[in-house]
Design brief:
133 residues, mainly alpha, extended
């Protein structure tokens, strides 16, 4: 969130350089998980691993497809937002490390923990008492 773009860039690069040291491990782990899901789906006579993953929660594949379609439909709004962010920050190009710095200067929004909990409980109240507990 720092105002200093070089600091943001440095922090971003340091984090992802550290992750980069584990590229092979992360890639192998992901590949193993994918193979596991495909094997389990076939072993349980599902057409795809996606079908099996969604069935566990009784979610029709059409719901997933509709979610993806809706995200794609509204991507132009995300692009508008990132262009606005770039303009407000006065940048020639927008990088990932620019995504979390405030677009409006001199505004501090701080909330005490207890107040945040209160807001969360109020926002989740429609879910019911059991959910809140």
């Amino acid at each position: 969130e720092a105002d200093d773009r070089e600091l943001r860039k440095s922090a971003y690069n340091n984090v992802y350089t550290a992750y980069g040291a584990y590229n092979n491990t992360l890639g192998a782990t992901l590949a193993g998980e994918v193979k596991k899901h495909v094997f389990n789906a076939r072993a349980h006579h599902y057409k795809t691993a996606r079908e099996q993953a969604l069935r566990r929660n009784h979610i029709p594949e059409e719901v997933y497809d509709n979610l993806v379609k809706t995200v794609h439909k509204y991507l132009p709004l995300l692009h508008r937002y990132t262009k606005l962010r770039q303009t407000l920050l006065g940048l020639d190009d927008l990088k990932m490390y620019d995504m979390y710095t405030p677009m409006v200067k001199d505004i501090k929004f701080e909330m005490p923990y207890d107040e945040a909990v209160e807001w969360m409980l109020k926002g989740l109240a429609p879910m019911g008492e059991e959910y809140l507990n």
